[in-house]
Design a protein that fits this description.
Chain lengths: 305, 253
C-alpha cells in the first residue's frame, strides 16, 4: 500500500483503485444476471408472437371455437378462465385476508400459532396436481358440487390460500408498530386500531397480493383438470349469455385446459391456434397483473407516510 | 405530602420480561396534582413503569407483573374495561409518532372513539389540545396536512396533543422533549405547570435539570431498582444515597 501523497490529499491510492475495480466487476455481474432474467422472457414472448401471428385477430379472441376447434376463436375458454378468476377471488379473498389479519394482529406467539404458520408455509409448496386431486375428492364428491365452476373455483381458492395469507401478513406487518401502540395508548381496541390505521394503510398490498396469486393459479391446468374444466361446450355467440356463459354448477372451458387439449389431444388444429391461445393466456395474466399494479400505484399515491 | 391523597400507588411491584427483571420491588406513591419526576440512566426500567400503569405492558408477550398498581385505590389489573383505563391516562413516548391521517384527525382520534361526533365540539377540543402542546400556531392553517409529514419536533408535539385529547387525569411523559427545540420545550414546560391543576403528571426525563425545574417529587432509578425518592429539592441538594448524588451532579459511572 502506497502512502498518501502529502501534496495532494485527494490523490487516488492503490487501495482505492482496487476498490473501484471490484465495484465495476460487481456491477457488471449483477447487470448481467438481470439481463439473463429478462432475455428468456423476451425470447419466449417473441417466439410465441411470431408463431401465433397468422391466427391473431379480433375474431380469434371474441369468437367461439368452430369445427372441432380447427376454426373460430377462443372466446369460450377465455371467458371461462376469467370467470374462474372472479369466483376464486370471491372465495379466497375473505378467508385469506381474515386469516392473515388474525395471524398478524391477534395471535399470540405460542405453539398453536407456530404450528399454523408452519402449515401455511408447507401448504404453499404442495404441487398443484395434488390440489386438483384434493378438489376432486373434497368438493366434487364429498360436498357433491359435481364437476363445476364452483368446485374448480374452490380448488383454486384452496391452492392460493397459503400464499394469500402470507402476503396479507407481510402487508400488515409493513404498517409500523408505533402506529398501533399510539392508538392503544389512546384507549382504542385492537379492532378499532386495525380498522382505522392498519387496514387503510395495508389494503393496497393485501389486494394486489390476492389478485396476483389468484390470476397465477387460474392459469394452471392441474387444479381444474378433474374439478370442472371441459373440452368443449356450446355457448352463445353474442349477447348477455355470451358474457356470462357459465353458471356456478356448470362445467366450463378454460384457456389452460383448452391449450392442453388442442396441443396434445386434438388432431388438425392449426399450429398458430396453439400459440395464439398461449399468447392470449399470457396476455390475460399480464392484463390482470397490470390492473392490480395500477390499482396499487393509485392506492400508494394516497399512502400516508 | 401527607395532606394530599395519592393518585397512583405502586405496592411491591416487580416486573420481568421472561427471566430478565425490569423493575424490582418498587413501592411508591404519587400524590394528586403534582409532577412526579423520574430520572435515571438507560435500562433502569422507567418506560416499563409507565407501560405498567395503563397496562399496555400486556402487549409485550412475556412480561409478568407481581404486586399491586393502584390508580385512585383501584388495582389496575382488576379493571375490566381496560380501554377506559387507558383513556384516563395520556401517554407520550420518546419516538414522535404522527398517525397517517390529517393533523386534525390525529387529535380527534380518541374523542371520536369515545363517541364525540359533534363537529363544533371536536373543533374546539382539537384547537385546545394543539394550543396546549404549542403546535397550534404552526399548523392552524393546515390542519388537513398529514400528521406524518410534520417535522420530528412537530410530530412530538402532535403526540402530546393526542395524549391530552381524551382529557386524561394522569399524563405520562417519557422523554417528551428530545425532538423539540429548547425554546418550545420551555413553553411546554410552562404548560405542564398549568396542567398540574387538572391532572397528575409523571415525567420521565434524561435532562435532570428538567426534573429539577418541574417536578414536585423525584425518584431516581438505576438498574431496575428505585434508589431514592423524595421531594425534588432534597433529591438534588441533599440526597441520602451516594449514587443519587453522583447522578444528579453528573458524576455518574
Amino acid at each position: 500500500m502506497s502512502k498518501p501523497d502529502a501534496n495532494n490529499p485527494f490523490a487516488i491510492t492503490a487501495n482505492e483503485i482496487r476498490g473501484r475495480k471490484v465495484e465495476r466487476f460487481i456491477r457488471f455481474i449483477t447487470l448481467g444476471m438481470t439481463w439473463a432474467l429478462i432475455l428468456p422472457v423476451l425470447f419466449i414472448l417473441g417466439f410465441l408472437l411470431i408463431k401465433a401471428w397468422p391466427a391473431l385477430s379480433v375474431g380469434f379472441i371474441f369468437d367461439n371455437p368452430e369445427k372441432n376447434m380447427t376454426a373460430g376463436g377462443i372466446w369460450g375458454p377465455l371467458i371461462g378462465t376469467f370467470m374462474l378468476i372472479i369466483v376464486s377471488l370471491l372465495i379466497a379473498a375473505p378467508i385469506g385476508i381474515l386469516a392473515g389479519v388474525y395471524l398478524n394482529e391477534f395471535a399470540r406467539d405460542n405453539w398453536f400459532t407456530r404450528f399454523i404458520n408452519l402449515a401455511v408455509v408447507n401448504l404453499a409448496g404442495v404441487p398443484s396436481i395434488v390440489h386438483g386431486l384434493f378438489g376432486l375428492g373434497a368438493f366434487v364428491y364429498f360436498f357433491q358440487m359435481q364437476r363445476s365452476l364452483l368446485a374448480a373455483s374452490c380448488t383454486v381458492a384452496v391452492m392460493t390460500l397459503p400464499v394469500i395469507i402470507t402476503s396479507t401478513k407481510e402487508a400488515l406487518a409493513s404498517v409500523p408498530q408505533p402506529f398501533r401502540v399510539a392508538c392503544w395508548n389512546m384507549g382504542a381496541s385492537k379492532w378499532q386500531t386495525i380498522r382505522t390505521i392498519v387496514l387503510p394503510n395495508s389494503i393496497s398490498g393485501i389486494l394486489t397480493g390476492v389478485i396476483l396469486q389468484v390470476a397465477r393459479a387460474a392459469g394452471e391446468t392441474a387444479p381444474i383438470l378433474f374439478t370442472g374444466a371441459m373440452i368443449s361446450s356450446r355457448i352463445a355467440d353474442s349477447g348477455w349469455a355470451s358474457m356470462v356463459p357459465y353458471g356456478l354448477e356448470d362445467r366450463f372451458m378454460a384457456l389452460s385446459y383448452h391449450l392442453y387439449i388442442i396441443s396434445t389431444q386434438w388432431q388438425n388444429v392449426p399450429e398458430s391456434f396453439k400459440f395464439g391461445t398461449a399468447i392470449v393466456m399470457i396476455g390475460l395474466v399480464i392484463a390482470v397483473n397490470s390492473i392490480s399494479i395500477g390499482f396499487r400505484i393509485y392506492l400508494r399515491s394516497r399512502k400516508k407516510w | 405530602m401527607t395532606t394530599q391523597t395519592s393518585h397512583i400507588e405502586f405496592q411491591d411491584v416487580t416486573i420481568s420480561y421472561g427471566k430478565e427483571i425490569a423493575l424490582r420491588d418498587i413501592s411508591l406513591a404519587i400524590p394528586e396534582h403534582t409532577i412526579f419526576g423520574i430520572i435515571g440512566p438507560a435500562n433502569a426500567g422507567k418506560t416499563t413503569l409507565l407501560k405498567s400503569i395503563n397496562r399496555t405492558l400486556e402487549f409485550e408477550p412475556n412480561a409478568k407483573t407481581v404486586g399491586k398498581i393502584l390508580v385512585h385505590g383501584t388495582d389496575v389489573s382488576h379493571i375490566k374495561n381496560v380501554y377506559a383505563l387507558r383513556r384516563r391516562i395520556g401517554m407520550v413516548f420518546p419516538l414522535p409518532v404522527g398517525l397517517p391521517m390529517s393533523v386534525y384527525e390525529n387529535v380527534a382520534y380518541a374523542p371520536r372513539r369515545a363517541g364525540i361526533h359533534d363537529r363544533q365540539e371536536l373543533d374546539e377540543l382539537v384547537k385546545h389540545c394543539l394550543k396546549q402542546s404549542m403546535l397550534w400556531d404552526e399548523v392552524k392553517d393546515r390542519l388537513t396536512l398529514l400528521g406524518t409529514k410534520l417535522s420530528g419536533g412537530q410530530q412530538q408535539r402532535l403526540t402530546i396533543a393526542r395524549a391530552l385529547s381524551h382529557k386524561p387525569e394522569i399524563l405520562c411523559l417519557d422523554e417528551f422533549s428530545i425532538a423539540i427545540d429548547p425554546v418550545t420545550t420551555m413553553k411546554i414546560e410552562d404548560v405542564l405547570l398549568e396542567l398540574k391543576k387538572e391532572m397528575t403528571i409523571i415525567l420521565v426525563t434524561n435532562l435532570v435539570q428538567q426534573a429539577r425545574r418541574l417536578a414536585d417529587h423525584t425518584a431516581f432509578f438505576n438498574k431496575s431498582e428505585m434508589i431514592e425518592v423524595g421531594p425534588t429539592e432534597k433529591i438534588f441538594s441533599n440526597p441520602e444515597q451516594q449514587l443519587t448524588h453522583d447522578y444528579v451532579t453528573g458524576d455518574f459511572g
